[in-house]
Every structure is written in structure tokens, then in C-alpha cells.
Amino acid sequence: MMFTKKLREPIRRGEITTSIRIWQSPRVKAGNAYAVIGGGRVRVTGIKEIGIADVTPKMARDSGFDGVIDLLKTAKHGRGERVFLVTFAYEGEQTPVRSASAPRPSSRPRARRPSGER
Q: Which of 39, 72, 75, 109 is buried deepest, with most CB atoms within 10 A?
């Protein structure tokens, strides 16, 4: 998920756990983790569609903004008109977990078959 530069550190510290997004359709799914520019990732814990009139000054402050107008100036940057309240938890830097069935990476080049053999 993309966050403005001023929000990244408070998100890493766990001080910000909500975001108001204005999209054409949902861009995240509860339970999924998303990389954060600048490092780490967040896991979305919930997403709820709300009306623009439902955005309160407290929601704006909880999202890291001074007020509703400040938040909407940042959130409204595309053609989207649907408003979503996204809750998340910062998980920090995570090493990707390799599936047990995934092939192991190899540092050796594969042997080439002589031409004509199958």
C-alpha cells in the first residue's frame, strides 16, 4: 500500500492503523499483506465501504492527518468516488516464506543435454 512519506514512520511505530481510501473499487483484501514503500509491509485487518459524509475529524486524525480536508486532499487523487475505511497492522520487514512444494533455488547452472538427445 502506498502512504505519504510523513505517514511511514508513524505506521512503522504502530501509531497509525487506519487509512481512508477513495477508489473506484476495493484495492486490498482483509487478511492479505501488502508491501509498504520505504520498507516493511502491512496486513489488512478490515475494509469497509463508507460514505464521504461518514469521514469524521477523528478518523482523519487517526489516519495521520490534521483534519478531514487535509485527508481528502491526499486521498482524492484519481477517478475513484467510493470511500473505504481500511484497518491494518504493520508487520515490519518479512522474509518471504517458501512453500514446501516450491523448488529450491540452485546456484549451479543446469547441465545441458548434447544436441539430438531428448
A: 75
